[in-house]
Amino acid sequence: MSAAASRFAAALSLALTAGCAAPVPPALPDAACVAIASDFGRDDDMNGDRRSGLHGGIDFKAPRATPAIAAAPGTVVELQSNPNTRGGLAVVIHHGNAPDGREIWSYYGHLEDFRTAVGEKVSRGQIVGLVGNTGWSMPKWRHFHLHFEVYARAPDAGRRSIVNPHALWFPLGQAGRRIGPAAEAKDSGDAGFSGFTHPLPCDGWKSSAAGAISAR
Ligand SMILES: [Zn+2]
What we know:
Order of helices and strands: HEEEEEEEEEEHH
Oligomer: single chain
CATH architecture: Distorted Sandwich
Bound molecules: zinc ion
Radius of gyration: 16 Å
Helix content: 10-25%
Number of strands: 10
Strand content: 25-35%
Number of domains: 1
CATH class: Mainly Beta
């Protein structure tokens, strides 16, 4: 394990064992933010095997029980709880409308457990579940990972469709994806969807939500 990975593991273990009154975990290294095991649109999986179709999301490799965090503020609209479906345990969050009028959702699949409930309003960075390997993640893919998928629906469209998450990182139109003061400032008021930050803990992730792990 690299030094960065080892620091990440230590920080994570702190975050996971901490109670409500726990101090804010130390900043996590960026390496944890870019561990893409299989990117959007690929026709092979993280083992190099051919997929049955193009990959509809991004697979982020992460240690078991890493917090999966809301990539933007929104409302939890669905918990998929059948571990044997393709995505396994999954959370769907509705984020409202982007500046171009499209309605936006995000999906977090292969979770080990939930840390939210349908109807809950979640803030950016709030823990919604724990990374696992439910669904079609095992036994073929022996890697714990988060499948992060994004849907959008144009104002005149009947149904939502899968879109490339890379086009919607915060700030919109740029490549940034960190949680930080800029992203948080955009979250105040009803500014609508302003872009996704990373769905896993990154540098700058403070866990106001760390307490949620033990609180639920
Ligand atoms: Zn995937």
